[in-house]
Write a structure and sequence with these properties.
The structure holds 2 protein chains of 2 kinds.
Chain A: E1 6-14, E2 29-35, E3 38-43, E4 55-59, E5 62-66, H1 69-76
Chain B: H1 3-19, E1 24-30, H2 31-40, E2 50-57, H3 59-62, H4 65-74, E3 80-84, H5 101-106, E4 110-113, H6 118-126, E5 131-138, H7 143-156, E6 161-167, H8 170-179, E7 187-191, H9 192-198, H10 201-210, E8 214-217, H11 221-237, E9 242-244, H12 256-265, E10 266-273, E11 277-286, H13 295-298, H14 315-319, H15 351-358
Classes of the chains: A mainly beta, B alpha/beta.
Chain lengths: ~80, ~350
């Protein structure tokens, strides 16, 4: 449950059950997220700053963290002590 | 493992060997990290004297047997739909021969596997005549989703949804491990995703109190190896502190929105951990505004455990890091993934399952 695959936000919507009576309540903000080809609906209730195109870490259906792509490139690229 | 990664791992292993000047024992807290370590064989690349022991960070494993017993009892009620995560459906209760939730389903119980608590909301709305109970477990990574479900259910005034709670918090367990008599842990690899919610302030408090290094670590073998190296460097230098080695995901302040939601719905409560016993302030209880969502109140469930019956399983010692899965007399014999005697053999985050899958 603590392991999570990062996915990329494709679109963001607002889906209160039973219509739009809740206005823009962040409780019902959802996203379509692409996990390497598999698309899933994810709640953005806990990540109000998330935008389309962001990479996010999702736990049991809710996005909890933005992946900082610059930091990621640092981790994935050659390690500082690796010889060429 | 790809070649580039193998080379990078080997380099890190070399650097680790060059850094270690005396024996050290470290613990990775999270069960997801345990699986990555055993699967990648990282623990076999460590220099002599550097020992890695596996922590209690498997939510399925530490869920008390009494909670499983309560879920099993609820699942026999025909008016009720019981929902939880997949691994929870295969965990035995206090009686290892007494069946699990999947067997209850085979016997006619309406037991449903969810990948998100939010699915329970849709089930409750689709079945207004029936009671829906979500067996809510997990650490700080799943608590926000349970809190969101409670908040949504409150907003919609859903009368047929309730929660059977067994949420747990990581820092009190780390605290219990390092203050236990016979503790061997000298440094922690902290669970990266828990920190992405909670931030690092609670860990900093622990470091100040107990003077041992804690490195916030990711889940890839390279990230784990780097975390180990950082931790050993801090130990060798005698400079215990919290180091965030998973900055791409973990901000030092965590996720304030998620934390606020959890704090709105829950308050800290004592919690019994399977294997560790009762730990103060290590669990979450619903705040009064949410008491009507408590399945234990709604269905008058007792808290009492029947006590574990005769079972050779040593999962308690494994969860405390005192024993390795292969030390258990039942490992691979009476206890296998298809016939587990203890939860660590069931869960995809359990240490016994990791050894069984990757160290045949």
């Amino acid at each position: 449950m603590c392991v999570a695959v990062p996915g990329r936000i494709l679109s963001i919507d607002h889906q209160p059950p039973g219509g739009d009576s809740d206005g823009e309540d962040p409780l019902w903000r959802i996203a379509q997220v692409d996990f390497g080809g598999v698309r899933q609906q994810v709640s953005l209730a806990c990540l109000p700053e998330a935008q389309v195109g962001d990479r996010v870490i999702v736990h049991v259906g809710i996005a909890l963290s933005l992946v900082a792509e610059d930091q990621e490139a640092e981790t994935r690229g050659p390690l500082p002590w690796a010889q060429p | 493992m790809g070649t580039a990664m193998s080379i990078a791992m080997a380099r890190l292993a070399q650097q680790l060997a060059a850094t270690v000047s005396q024996p050290w024992t470290l613990m990775e807290v999270c069960g997801g990290q345990t699986h990555a370590i055993v699967r990648s064989g990282l623990d076999q690349l460590l220099p002599p004297g550097l020992r890695l022991i596996h922590g209690p960070g498997c939510p399925v494993c530490v869920t008390p047997a009494a909670t499983i017993d309560a879920a099993l009892e609820l699942a026999t009620r025909p008016e009720l739909i019981l929902c939880s995560y997949g691994d929870m459906l295969r965990v035995p209760g206090s009686d290892p021969t007494g069946g699990n939730l999947l067997q209850q389903r085979a016997a006619g119980g309406d037991v449903r596997l969810l990948t998100s608590p939010l699915q329970a909301l849709a089930i409750a709305q689709a079945h207004p005549q029936r009671q829906v109970v979500f067996l809510a477990v997990g650490f700080e990574t799943t608590a926000p989703a349970t809190a969101l479900l409670a908040r949504q259910a409150l907003g919609l005034q859903l009368a047929n949804l309730s929660l059977l709670l067994a949420h747990v918090r990581v820092p009190p367990a780390m605290e219990a491990i390092i203050t236990a008599p016979g503790n061997q842990v000298q440094g922690f690899l902290a669970a990266g995703h828990v920190c992405s919610v909670m931030g690092i302030s609670e860990l900093e408090l622990m470091v100040r109190q107990h003077q041992l290094p804690v490195v916030v670590t990711g889940f890839e073998p390279l990230e784990l190896m780097q975390g180990l190296l950082h931790c050993v460097q801090l130990l060798e230098a005698g400079t215990p502190r919290v180091l965030n080695a998973y900055k791409k995901v973990v901000r030092d302040s965590g996720n304030p929105t998620a934390r606020a939601l959890v704090e709105e719905v829950f308050e800290l409560a004592p919690q019994t951990w399977r294997g560790l016993g009762a730990l103060p302030a290590s669990g979450l209880a619903l705040r009064p505004a949410y008491h009507h969502l408590d399945a234990r109140r709604r269905f008058q469930l007792g808290q009492a455990s029947k006590g574990e019956s005769d079972n050779p399983c040593i999962s308690g010692l494994i969860l405390q890091g005192q024993k390795n899965p292969v030390d258990c007399p039942a490992f691979g014999k009476g206890c296998r993934p298809e016939h587990p005697l203890g939860a660590p053999m069931v869960s995809s985050e359990g240490a016994c399952a990791a050894y069984h899958h990757y160290r045949p």
